[in-house]
């Protein structure tokens, strides 16, 4: 490889590192990636999950599947939204709250 090509490749790698940072490798054999979503509180996370579920309900009530048959660019991908909601749901935290509730009920 010529010196100029090597320099261009290095510049290209640096550009990629500075711009392509939304997803990170999960460091597993599945070749999955992780995208971090930031929330200011559990309440904001809950509101986001709630709104996404409302969006899915509206999509189902308005026959979004019929819209996708005519114009794929305006279709709402409900399975994708539901998968994201599923991943956002803080199950560990709910388990923790359940443990606290159990401890509290035992005391009273």
Question: Features of this protein?
Answer:
two-stranded antiparallel ribbon, mainly alpha, flat, 2 strands, 108 residues
SSE blueprint:
Elements: H1 3-19, E1 23-25, E2 33-35, H2 42-61, H3 64-70, H4 78-88, H5 91-107
Antiparallel strand pairs: 1-2
Description of the molecule:
- This protein is mainly α.
- 67% of the residues lie in helices and 6% in strands.
- A two-stranded antiparallel ribbon has the order 1-2.
- Strand 1 and strand 2 (33-35) form a beta hairpin.
- Helix 2 runs antiparallel to helix 4 (78-88).
- The longest helix is centred in the middle third of the chain and has 20 residues, at 42-61.
Morphology call:
flat
How many helix segments? 5
What strand order characterises the main sheet?
1-2
- Could you tell me the mean pLDDT? 82
Largest sheet: 2 strands, antiparallel
Order of helices and strands: HEEHHHH
Segments where pLDDT lies below 50 for 5+ residues? Answer: none
Q: What is the oligomer described by this structure?
A: single chain
Measured between the Cα atoms of the first and last residue, the distance is: 75 Å
Structural class: mainly alpha
């Amino acid at each position: 490889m010529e010196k100029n090509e090597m320099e261009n490749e290095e510049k290209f790698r640096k550009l990629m590192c500075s711009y392509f940072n939304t997803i990170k490798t999960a460091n597993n054999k599945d070749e999955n990636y992780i995208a971090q979503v930031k929330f200011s509180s559990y309440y904001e996370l809950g509101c986001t999950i709630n709104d996404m579920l409302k969006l899915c309900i509206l999509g189902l009530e308005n026959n979004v599947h019929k819209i996708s048959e005519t114009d794929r660019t305006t279709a709402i991908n409900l399975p994708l939204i539901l998968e994201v909601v599923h991943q956002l749901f803080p199950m560990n935290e709910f388990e923790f709250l359940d443990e606290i509730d159990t401890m509290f009920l035992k005391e009273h």
